[in-house]
């Protein structure tokens, strides 16, 4: 990698760090190519990205971003996962770490808040942004559904009474 490629890599990572909601640092302990490909596809499905970056370049890219505290986690064979959704990258990384012992969650950061391994796991246990939106829509729709049911109930009771009288007279 020559100097211009390194400069481009740092600039790209810096742009990513200025846009995302969460960054998770993982330690790779001998992932095979198939496992790495599987992890990347699971990250993409969750709306996250995963990249193995040189620690020195990642530390340079972290400067002047809200994720500066992550520099302490960047030692050894590490990789970075990030997403705009504050839960997606953490959830995908933790779920993959449950299936293999070749990846270890080191820590992360959500905004300016540093997270240790337990913090990342706690973040992963929270519902995603889409799940929260679905819950809110359900809560907003529930009163309208109940009102419609209450308004229609007297009419249906009246129809049942008329139906019963009609059946009684026919018999």
UniProtKB/TrEMBL annotation:
**Per UniProt, which keywords does this protein have?**
Ribonucleoprotein, Ribosomal protein, RNA-binding, rRNA-binding
Protein name, as recorded? Large ribosomal subunit protein uL10
What role does this protein play? Forms part of the ribosomal stalk, playing a central role in the interaction of the ribosome with GTP-bound translation factors.
Q: Name one GO biological process term.
A: translation
Q: Which Pfam families does the record match to this protein?
A: Ribosomal_L10
* One GO CC term on file: large ribosomal subunit
Q: Which HAMAP family match?
A: Ribosomal_uL10 (MF_00362)
Q: Which PANTHER family match?
A: 39S RIBOSOMAL PROTEIN L10, MITOCHONDRIAL
Species whose genome carries this gene: Pelagerythrobacter marensis
UniProt family annotation = Belongs to the universal ribosomal protein uL10 family.
- Gene Ontology molecular function, alphabetical: large ribosomal subunit rRNA binding; structural constituent of ribosome
What superkingdom does the record give?
Bacteria
Q: How does it assemble?
A: Part of the ribosomal stalk of the 50S ribosomal subunit. The N-terminus interacts with L11 and the large rRNA to form the base of the stalk. The C-terminus forms an elongated spine to which L12 dimers bind in a sequential fashion forming a multimeric L10(L12)X complex.
Q: What InterPro entries does the entry give? A: Ribosomal_uL10, Ribosomal_uL10-like_sf, Ribosomal_uL10_bac, Ribosomal_uL10_bac_type, Ribosomal_uL10_CS_bac
């Amino acid at each position: 990698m020559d100097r211009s490629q390194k400069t481009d890599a740092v600039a790209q990572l810096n742009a990513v760090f200025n846009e995302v909601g969460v960054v998770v640092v993982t330690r790779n302990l001998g992932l095979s190519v198939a496992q790495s490909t599987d992890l990347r596809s699971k990250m993409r499905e969750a709306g996250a990205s995963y990249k193995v970056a040189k620690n020195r370049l990642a530390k340079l890219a972290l400067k002047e971003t809200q994720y500066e505290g992550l520099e302490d986690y960047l030692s050894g064979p590490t990789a970075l996962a990030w997403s705009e959704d504050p839960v997606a990258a953490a959830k995908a990384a933790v779920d993959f770490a449950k299936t293999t012992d070749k990846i270890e969650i080191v820590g992360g950061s959500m905004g300016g808040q540093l997270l240790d391994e337990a913090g990342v796991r706690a973040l992963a246990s929270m519902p995603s942004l889409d799940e929260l939106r679905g819950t809110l829509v359900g809560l907003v729709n529930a009163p309208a559904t109940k009102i419609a049911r209450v308004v229609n109930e007297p009419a249906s009771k009246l129809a049942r009474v008329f139906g019963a009288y009609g059946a009684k007279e026919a018999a």
